[in-house]
C-alpha cells in the first residue's frame, strides 16, 4: 500500500504541476491566432530590407503575443487584438483574401506609412471587430469595397494618401461608431455619398486634397458632433448647403481652395463654436453675411485671394477693414489680402 499511495501522491503532484503550467502559460497564443500572422509574414520576401527584419522573431512555437508589433487581449486569453506595423518599411502585397482579415479578435490594424506596401481590402469575409483601421501613406489600391460598411465597431478609418480610387461606397454610412474619417489626399473621387450624414459620432472629417466634386450633400448638416471639417483643396462646387449652420460643435472649418460659388450661407453665423474659418482662394461671391459677426469664438478668419465684395461686416468688430491688409480686430486675426473689392 505504501508505494501505491506514494505513487498516487506523486500523480496528484504531477497533475497540479501540469495545471499550474497550463494556467501560467495560458497567454500563449493558439495556432489559429498565430497562423494568419505567419502567413502575413510570408507575404514579405524582400529580406534585403527592414520589412523582413521587423518580423524576424515571428516564429512558430513562440508566443505570438510577444512578437514585435503584435498586441493581445488583457485577459490573458492569447487573442491577437492589435497589429501595429506603422512605418515598418513593409514591402509586399497584401491580397484581399489574406487570412489577416479573418483574425476574429483584431481591433487595431495600423499599417500606416509603409509606402511600398500594396494591398486591397476584402470584398466580403471581413470578420475582424476592427476599431482602428489605418492604411494611410501606403500603396493600398482598388476601390473601397462595400464590405467596409460591415465594420460596425470602427471608430477610426484613415485611408488618406493611398492609391485607392473611385467613389466612397454608400455603405460608409453604416459606420455609426466612427469618430475620425480621413479620406484626404488624392485617393477618392466622385460625389460624397449622402449616407455620410449618418455618421452621427464623427468629430473629424477630412475630405481635403481630393478629387471629390459636386455639391457637398445637405446631409452634412446632420454631423452634429463634428469639430473639424476640412473640404479644402478639392473640386467641390455649387453652394455651400445651408445645413452647414447645424454644425454647432464645429471649431475648425477649412473651405479654402475650392470651387464653391454663390454667397456664404447666412447660417454660418450659427456656428458659435467656430474658432478658425479659412475661406482663401475661393470663388464665393457677394458680400460676407452680416451673421459672421455672431461668431464670438472666432480667432482666425482667412479671406485671402477671395472674390467677396464690400467690406468685412461691421458686426465682426470693426467699421471697415481694407481688403488689402491683415487686421487684428477685437482679437480676431483677419487675413484679407487681394480680395476683389
Ligand atoms: C521591394 O521588394 C522588391 C522585390 O521583392 C524589390 O525589387 C524592391 O527594390 C523593394 N523596394 C524597396 C524600396 O526596397
Ligand atoms: C530599403 O528601403 C529603403 C526605404 O524604402 C530604401 O531607401 C532602400 O534603398 C532599401 N534598401 C535596400 C537594400 O533595398
Ligand atoms: C488567395 O487567392 C489566390 C488566388 O487569387 C490563391 O492563390 C491563394 O491561395 C488565396 N489565399 C488564401 C489565403 O486563401
Ligand atoms: C498608427 O500608428 C502611428 C504610429 O504609431 C500613429 O501616429 C497613428 O496615430 C496610428 N493611427 C491611428 C488611427 O491610431
Ligand atoms: C468567403 O469565405 C467563404 C468560406 O471560406 C468562401 O467560400 C468564399 O469564397 C469567400 N468569399 C470571398 C468573396 O472571398
Describe the protein:
This protein is an alpha/beta fold. It has a domain at 28-165: Ribonuclease Inhibitor (Leucine-rich repeat, LRR (right-handed beta-alpha superhelix), Alpha-Beta Horseshoe). It contains three helices and 21 strands. The chain has helices at residues 2-24, 31-41, 50-54; strands spanning 70-72, 80-84, 92-94, 108-110, 117-119, 132-134, 139-142, 156-158, 163-164, 180-182, 189-190, 204-206, 211-214, 228-230, 235-238, 252-254, 259-260, 276-278, 300-302, 326-329, 332-335. The strands form three sheets. A 13-stranded mixed beta sheet has the order 1-2-4-6-8-10-12-14-16-18-19-21-20, with no helix packed on it. β20 and β21 form a beta hairpin. It is elongated. One 2-acetamido-2-deoxy-beta-D-glucopyranose binds at residues 48-49, 89, 116.
Shape: elongated
Q: Please give the count of helices.
A: 3
Biggest pleated sheet: 13 strands, mixed
**What is the level 1 CATH name of the domain at 28-165?**
Alpha Beta
Bound molecules: 2-acetamido-2-deoxy-beta-D-glucopyranose
H-E string: HHHEEEEEEEEEEEEEEEEEEEEE
The counted number of beta strands is 21
Distance between the termini: 109 Å
> Rg, please?
27 Å
- CATH fold naming of the domain at 28-165: Leucine-rich repeat, LRR (right-handed beta-alpha superhelix)
Helix fraction by DSSP (H/I, runs of at least 4): 10-25%
CATH superfamily name of the domain at 28-165?
Ribonuclease Inhibitor
Query: What structural class should be given to the helix and strand makeup?
Result: alpha/beta
Mean pLDDT: 85
Based on the coordinates given, report the CATH architecture of the domain at 28-165. Alpha-Beta Horseshoe
Q: Show unreliable segments.
A: 16-25, 318-327, 337-341
Biggest sheet strand order reads 1-2-4-6-8-10-12-14-16-18-19-21-20
Beta-strand fraction estimate: 15-25%
